[in-house]
Design goal:
Number of strands: 0
Radius of gyration: 30 Å
Strand content: under 5%
Structural class: mainly alpha
Order of helices and strands: HH
Distance between the termini: 87 Å
Length: 110
């Protein structure tokens, strides 16, 4: 187990079998991002320059608001209903019929 001989801290559960999932699924230390140990086992002291986290520190939402950083809005359109899909198909067919009628009218005028 990753907890060492002491076992998990009070309130923690035992992790699932690491052989069941991919390596990326295993939790990482929150101080140094290492997957070799848990955060409470990390030997890195706060403020030390050794073993900096990968990718830097993520900003909290409050820090983002203070700095004027806006999150990108995620716009997810709901799927079309059956009625909307039917109306779209009718519009396409009507446009196709108009083009055929115009083509026939041009042939008849010549």
């Amino acid at each position: 187990m990753s907890y060492g001989e002491k076992g998990p801290p009070k309130g923690y559960s035992n992790p699932r079998d690491p052989t069941l999932g991919a390596e990326d699924v295993r939790p990482a230390c929150q101080k140094c991002q290492s997957r070799d140990h848990w955060t409470f086992e990390c030997t890195r002291k706060p403020g030390s320059g050794a073993a900096k986290p990968k990718g830097g520190k993520a900003l909290s939402r409050t820090e983002m608001l203070k700095r004027g950083i806006k999150k990108k809005a995620v716009v997810a359109a709901p799927p079309k209903t059956d009625r909307e899909a039917f109306e779209d198909e009718l519009k396409e067919r009507a446009a196709m019929l108009r083009q055929e009628l115009q083509a026939e009218a041009e042939l008849g005028n010549q």
